[in-house]
Specification:
It comes from Streptomyces natalensis ATCC 27448. With 795 residues, the chain is of the alpha/beta class. The protein is built from 23 helices and 28 strands. A hairpin with a 2-residue loop joins strand 2 and strand 3 (64-71).
């Protein structure tokens, strides 16, 4: 039976009872590819075949799942169609190829042992939040898994973080060390059971098991009860989760939150909180239907929700997210989380928990138990751990709504390693990403697999984590890269790693902003046959001329790019020192604009006198001043100029604070707008935008006593208007009408939404990121597509 015949037969009307039944049997083999292992697919196939009265077998292979079904033609056709249509909730069927084979006879339908021959080509499922059926068992005193911290079934629980190799069987996971007890083994072998072939199956008898280290529990306390008491008493506890350790404390305890912030050297960077249920945070934040769906879905990311104005006694310390317009919220996604927050009838405990990655700033998340005791010793008062190893580090994903759709700030747990389907085929390749928010990408054919979030590559431990992530992703995808792609910046650790590990393989260096634009094109399915107008705004990227780019408009496809516009270059005095101290960038922008840095200006007051004298000399002489066109640095400068933020304790703090200020401005009339000067006289040259008029208008508003919030709002409006002017000019010159908005600056939802609306109102098609982050967490996808098409060509 062909695929066409199977589809046609499946859609035919069922014959009336009086019609003669077909008795001649047929047999087909169906090769199913996609996320079909570790999601209950073989039990689903077994149940489907049994329902339809078919005989045959099903097995895992390195390429996916292969089923053979025999019986009446109409029933076999329905079987072939329903394999795709009725797949289990965590499955993702990419293809189901049907082939007629000879009838063999036999009785019953069997699940055969997995085949391990051949290279791996199947897809591993991400970890999934505890399903409702398991949660009901967790809460039921009569159930044998009552209060078991590791209960799971074919529809939920750990997947990617425990896989050691494929095909996905218990022996190929970190559950291999836990022999199933007789009752679990019976459930595992029972086709009628929800845990039929659920590889992480577990119970109180067979493990895994919790243990509490660093604190003495009271007599009769189990590790969870003791941990809840510690949290209620103000302790910081390191808790082992699915993809690593969290540092946890009571989110309502000012002292505990401040202590965690101080120990982790967190500065003012917001913490995320975990709530038992949405009703616990609904008076703190606005929650739309789309955000509710994100919070309660199987991925359970951290969702950035807009905060409500404070009123009454809040169940949240102000130190959790100081100065942030958003609160990062997630709901429990493991049985352990539900138990930490308490089941119905449990003694009162913390209702909201700070849940932050178990690491020191700049280091990767800790996964190993011995390493946790050592690396988190100065951060935690106690450790709640367990004996199931974590194979793959996996931080929580972070999502926000932008322009009405989800936008990833960090794509990790719950989504990695779901592949991105590529619009063009690529040869086997590895892209190493950037040095901030590093994520690597493997690709072959029309699939690209992105790793979980790895972190910032400045730290040796992160570079080691990068290497382990690369090896594991090769193992579970079967891709053996023939070439490597890396950023053009010669100092990037990710680029240096590619050179060290290339061997005889080619390394293709990809321009940073070209990669950003290509990532947006790829995730939206553009085949590259027609260029786009790419607007790439971020903090830093190595330019063709050796300058630091970051306010770019490029005419781009996968094969190349041309610079259509950019922000005017200004000096970046002192590199990282200026990134950490936005007042320096403000003074540099004033210098470049020829504006007087008068003593009454906020950045002048923020800069110590000695530093101000040295900075003036540095700018006058051009000493250690790399030119930059970065829009991210312009946001820093205006943030300081408006008196919003002068010191950045974490990446993009000044820009985030400026967005937060703008959101508090009145929604009605922002008054006189700001406008960039745009030099577009030469059609053959890039159109250069000069921020000097904007800066002069900001100074005038400051001296007129205009509130910082209104200055911030006017600046956002000016940037959106600039993008609109640039894109209209590009359309007039090229005839193109598709715009890709990309780069970390477009994680700013106020800017992205305002800009997209202006462009659409003018008839332009707008591409915003939906499947990978706009920041450097999506960079590797663009590198991969560009490099695999440009390999063996000029670098």
């Amino acid at each position: 039976m062909t695929v066409r015949q199977a589809d046609a037969a499946a859609t035919e009307a069922v014959p009336a009872p009086s019609a003669p039944a077909q008795t001649a049997a047929v047999r087909c083999r169906i090769a199913v590819r996609g996320v079909v292992q570790g999601v209950g697919f073989r039990p689903f196939v077994h149940a489907l075949a049994t329902e339809l009265g078919l005989t045959g077998q099903v097995t895992n292979t390195p390429d996916g799942v292969v089923a053979e079904a025999e019986g009446p033609p109409a029933a076999v056709a329905r079987f072939a169609a329903r394999i795709r249509e009725d797949a289990p909730p965590l499955a993702m069927v990419e293809s189901a190829d049907v082939l007629d084979i000879p009838v063999t006879g036999g009785t019953g339908f069997a699940i055969r042992p997995s085949r391990t021959d051949g290279p791996s080509r199947t897809l591993v499922a991400p970890d999934a939040a505890t399903c409702d059926a398991c949660l009901a068992e967790l809460r039921d005193p009569a159930d044998r898994r009552y209060r078991h911290p590791f209960l799971t079934c074919t529809h939920c629980g750990p997947r990617f973080t425990i896989v050691t190799a494929l095909p996905y069987d218990r022996a190929m996971t970190t559950m291999a060390r836990f022999p199933m007890c007789p009752r679990c083994a019976q459930e595992y072998a029972d086709p009628a059971d929800r845990r039929f072939h659920a590889q992480p199956i577990a119970c109180h008898d067979c493990g895994p098991r919790l243990r509490l280290t660093g604190a003495d529990p009271r007599p009769g306390d189990d590790p969870l009860t003791a941990t809840r008491r510690l949290l209620a008493d103000g302790a910081v506890v390191a808790v082992k989760g699915l993809g690593g350790y969290h540092l946890v404390c009571d989110a309502a305890d000012d002292d505990a939150v401040a202590r965690l912030r101080q120990r982790k050297a967190r500065g003012d960077k917001p913490f995320a909180v975990m709530a038992r249920q949405l009703s616990d945070v609904e008076r703190l934040v606005h929650v739309s239907d789309a955000e509710r769906a994100l919070l309660t879905g199987p991925a359970r990311p951290i969702v950035l929700l807009r905060r409500r104005p404070p009123h009454g006694a809040a169940p949240l310390s102000p130190a959790v997210a100081p100065g942030s317009p958003d609160l990062g919220v997630m709901l429990p996604y493991t049985p352990l989380h539900h138990l930490l927050l308490g089941l119905p009838g449990d003694p009162p405990g913390p209702g909201l928990l700070v849940m932050t990655s178990g690491n020191t700033a700049g280091e990767p998340i800790v996964t190993d138990d011995d390493e946790a005791l050592r690396r988190l010793a100065h951060l935690a008062d106690a450790w709640l751990t367990h004996d199931r190893p974590i194979q793959v580090p996996c931080d929580d994903s972070v999502v926000r709504l932008c322009d009405g759709e989800p936008l990833f700030v960090r794509r990790s747990r719950g989504h990695a390693p779901f592949p991105v389907t590529l619009p063009v085929p690529v040869r086997p390749a590895l892209a190493t990403g950037g040095d901030l928010k590093n994520v690597l990408c493997l690709g072959e054919g029309r699939r690209a697999w992105l790793s979980a979030h790895i972190g910032d590559m400045d730290d040796l431990a992160t570079q080691q984590a990068f290497h382990r992530a690369e090896e594991h992703l090769e193992t579970v995808t079967g891709v053996r890269p023939e070439l490597l792609a890396a950023d053009r910046h010669p100092g990037y650790r990710s680029t240096q790693w590619a050179r060290r590990h290339a061997g005889e393989r080619q390394v293709v260096h990809v321009q940073h902003h070209h990669a950003h634009i290509a990532a947006a094109m790829a995730e939206h399915g553009l085949d590259g046959s027609r260029p786009v107008i790419g607007v790439a705004f971020d903090g830093t990227g190595y330019g063709d001329d050796g300058a630091i780019w970051g306010g770019e408009v490029l005419l781009a496809d996968y094969d190349g790019y041309r610079r259509l516009g950019h922000l005017r270059y200004v000096p970046l005095p002192g590199g990282d020192a200026t990134v950490r101290r936005p007042y320096r960038m403000a003074l540099a922008q004033l210098h470049a604009a020829g504006l007087d840095a008068a003593a009454d200006l906020p950045p002048v007051a923020a800069c110590p006198p000695d530093e101000r004298r040295l900075l003036h000399q540095q700018l006058r002489c051009g000493l250690n001043c790399v030119p930059t066109s970065s829009m991210g640095r312009l946001f820093d400068a205006v943030s300081s100029l408006a008196g919003v933020c002068h010191h950045a304790g974490y990446e993009a703090q000044a820009a985030l604070a400026l967005e937060a200020a703008a959101l508090t401005a009145a929604d009605d009339d922002h008054g006189p707008g700001y406008a960039f000067a745009l030099d577009a006289a030469d059609p053959a040259a890039p159109a250069v935008a000069d921020p000097a008029p904007v800066l002069a208008a900001v100074l005038a508003d400051l001296r007129a006593g205009v509130a910082p919030a209104l200055i911030a709002a006017r600046f956002h409006t000016a940037v959106a208007a600039l993008v609109h002017r640039w894109c209209r000019l590009a359309r007039d010159r090229t005839g193109l009408d598709t715009v890709a908005l990309t780069g970390g600056v477009f994680a700013n939802t106020l800017l992205a939404t305002t800009t997209a609306r202006l462009l659409r109102a003018d008839g332009l098609t707008v591409l915003l990121h939906r499947r990978v982050p706009p920041n450097d967490g999506g960079l590797a996808l663009g590198q991969l597509v560009i490099a695999a098409r440009r390999a063996d060509g000029p670098d």
